[in-house]
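As noted in the main text, all predictions were made from sequence alone. Below is one such record, for Peptidase S1 domain-containing protein.
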Amino acid sequence: MSNNFTYQSNDFERQAQRFVIPLYIQDELGGYQFSSTATLARYNGRHYILMAAHALDGCSSLDQFYFFQTDGQFFQLTEIASSYAVYKDDDLIVIDCFNVVLDGKNYFNLNEDKLSGFEKNHFSWTGFPSSMCKAKKVHSSKSSEGLKQQYVTEEDGQMYFKSAKYFTIDSKFKGLNALNITGVYDRKNAELKYKGKVTTGPSPEGMSGGAMYQFAKGKKLKDSLDDSFRFIGIGIEYKKDNRIIGISKPRVISLIKQSEDKNPIGLEMHIFEPET
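Prediction:
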């Protein structure tokens, strides 16, 4: 492992961050710029990548979105998609990958609902803040081998990215219904696990699309990931009054079902405009 890199996470946190990936947008010159976060999930035997629809603002299409691999290459999201749907009114994109899974990553099981053994009053939101991204812009001249040496490291047989650091916000439930989740994150005088008390905590910008989930009591790993992490939604917004807002699991599942009903053979995009 590189001497100037320390992977500050325990076993539970390492598993939690494997449910999310940082996303990059390819620019006109072939370079890449950090955008936002995506969450990995499975439902009824199919695998999905979920992200915030507002990540498309300023972009022509989802074809411009890529994720960084441990071999130093950027891979196009739509290359592994059988179909995808953009729900602008809900601020969610559902990417159906059918039976394609990302190696070394975790997928939330959306078919699981039981909360026995889980913390009932708190939840977490994990994503990749822009302020903690070391590779906000990657020039097109950078080789995959050079990027691998610069941004990928190995520890205890596992490969880890140094290009973007994840961050987890823990919150009490302030609201939860069939459409939304509400919590709170006060950046002032925040208490960070590995840095202690700071004047201002990291901005959640870039965490949109990251997972919101309940966790096993004490944040202790159980015998299975399904017994340790319970998906409850997708984080999409941080308000000026310190509220954090997410799309709740029932709505996510409803939109997944809509995308399944309209899933064609081959790649086709379905854009759902807001109702007027």
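Residues 249-261 form the longest helix (13 residues). Residues 1-6 have pLDDT under 50 and may be disordered. These features were considered when defining construct boundaries for the mutagenesis experiments described in Section 2.9.
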